[in-house]
Structures are given as C-alpha cells and as structure tokens.
Amino acid sequence: MRIRHAVPLSVAALAILMSGCADGQGGDGGGDGKPSESADASSQTSQPPAPSGGARPWEPDDALRRAERALDAAADDGTKPGPVDAGTAYIGSGWNKSFPASDKKPYRLEITCDTDGVEELTLTLSRGEEEQPYGVECGDREADHYNLPAGKPFKAYVAPDKHGTGLIAWRLNTVAPGDVDGCDDDIDGCED
Fold this sequence. Notes:
- The strands form two sheets. Strands 1-8-3-6 form a four-stranded antiparallel sheet. It has a four-stranded antiparallel sheet with strand order 2-7-4-5.
- The chain has helices at 11-18, 37-43, 60-75; strands spanning 82-90, 95-99, 107-116, 120-127, 130-137, 144-148, 154-158, 165-174.
- Helix 1 (11-18) packs across helix 3 (60-75).
- By secondary structure, the chain is of the alpha+beta class.
- 16% of the residues lie in helices and 31% in strands.
C-alpha cells in the first residue's frame, strides 16, 4: 500500500541550497525568514566536485528528480496522507532533524538518497534512549518508509559521508491509523 501527495520538492530551492546561496537571509519558504535544519545543513557544504575519470558528473537537478520519483513511488499506495514536512540535504553534510510528532495521527517518514560513490547510508531513528538504525540503499526506485506513532517525538539522523557526492530527500506525512502498513513503531520495533 503506497500513498501519493502534493508536496513536491522544489528543484529551484535545491539548486540554491546546493550553490551555497542559502545563507539564511532568504529563508526556506517556511515564512519565518529562517532556513530549516536541512537547508542550514545543506548550505554549509558547497557543491560537490564532479567525479573524475570521464564519468558523467552527478547533477543535483537530475538527482533531485530521481529522488522525487522515489518518494512518489513510496507514496503511491492509494492512501491520503497529510503532509507535515519535507526537505533535502547533501550527504556530505548529513541530516539531523527532530520531529515533535504532535499530531493525533500516526506518521510515515519516507527517505531516499541519490549519490555518486555511496551505495548505502545509515538512518538512525531515535526517541529518548531508544534508537534503531536502518540501511537506506541509495538510488532505489522507491523510497524507504518508516512508521512512527502520534504523540511520541522522535529524531532522524544520517551521519555525514565525505566519500561520495549526493543528496538525501525525505518527507514526513501523517496517515490514518488504518493505513499503517507493517509495524506501527519502527523505533520500538515489532515482534513477529
């Protein structure tokens, strides 16, 4: 079961972030004049160099389009999610985000990566002392998704990877309780 929603990631916004122009003065379109955590992390790293050896260089715009398709594929399950947040970050900057999870509906975090030189990143979901690492394969045609319950704040972390070029793209949605597919809390885990 997959969901589809209308929270597209802006190619122009990613291009600005990746060009190093996101210095916090223009904001991230959030209306408060402050860049988001992912915009702030992305702006700290200049655009990565193209790979050597005659290979086609990794292009941020192409990578973002592939990442959007992977997020859309993960969301294509017929449910009607409620968009909460979305963003991107360079793998060289990593990603570290806290979510208040204050809605009354469960959450679904969808995440993907598109890289040149890195096959997998480790996503760590945590709440208090509990944490659960997951491998996110980069370049998959469908983003990975993780279920998290309402009312339980959580953090998501991907360590910076300086060995490759690429981006992380993610979306957080609320879903109806009946639309939770699989384990209802991917931090606590579920026994079979």
